User: What shape does this take?
Amino acid sequence: MKIYKKAVLPQGFKANGVSCGLKRSGKLDLALFYSEPRAKAACKFTANKIKAAPVQLDSIILEHSKFFHALIANSGNANAFCGKAGLRDAREMTRYTAQNLCLKKEEVLVASTGIIGKRLDVAKIKKAVPQLIKGLSKHGIDKAKKAIMTTDTFVKEITVRCFIGGKAVTVCGIAKGAGMIAPNTATMLCFIFTDACITQRALESSLGACVQDSFNCITVDGCMSTNDSVIAFANSASNSRLISGGKDLAAFSRALGAVCLELAKSIVRDGEGASKFIRIRVKGAASVSEAKRSALSIANSNLFKCAMYGSSANIIGRIVAAIGASGVPAQEEGLSIKFSSLKKRDVDIEVGLGRGKAGAAVYTCDLSPEYVKINAEYN
Assistant: This one.
């Protein structure tokens, strides 16, 4: 398995990004990803009960369509909490994109990120679509990955190559996210592209497991978005052996898992106003879910996160209180807490519950005055 710290599109994929005017800054805000061969898709969406229009529409499309060719995504406007008008706008994005690509509207998925509660200016998007399509290329990913960013300070990207039956298979992933990050799923957009030949069932199973161990193990502020989406396309262009299970699925899942975890960690490292990347490992739990619940209780504690920002000696007190508040029946005499230097950029916290042999790890960051400033001024 080879890992590349940049986005390299697999065979059969093209992309592009343009500025259509949704962002007042004039920065790139509209991206298109296109697969010439038809592709299978697997998706994981936010657990938020109020879902953005693109999430609603994609869920409907996925129920009726088996193959896809394109994904159009915008930043600067979430198209969320806009009622039926928002759903119509999302449909128009897919319809117009499909029309210009000579596709069926059911072959196009959509994603949005940005301000919630403001109507999306679809006219601006439609005006830019022909230019977006004209510029599609393998290297267009360099623009597309920037066009999905909002408060991000850097691009989240990675490519992993593995071998299936002697054939090279590429898994490329890009993501955006820095604030409103909480598990199930973290508030972000993540797009994954692979040329693997894989069954629908195997793709969905692999993505579900990888998301559970990556995006559902990160938190910046404990706030869940309306637009969280992880969308994976697999177009079979590698002509690899069909992946359905066994060693082939294990090899593919390792590659996909590496992509998901690296992107998830990158989101935490770019947490709004963050100065520290914190890994919390809980061991000695009675079950994995118990370990994860304890770790997330610590990671989502504002008192813990503020103490981490100040490198406070009271960090142990914050951890103990968070564990007790998690509902896990840990006992004082069985509890152990270790941590690395609080002065460094990367901090490791290790907690032993003394209840069993299960463990889990989650990733978070500190809470700084800059976080308040960013979100007070975001409009």
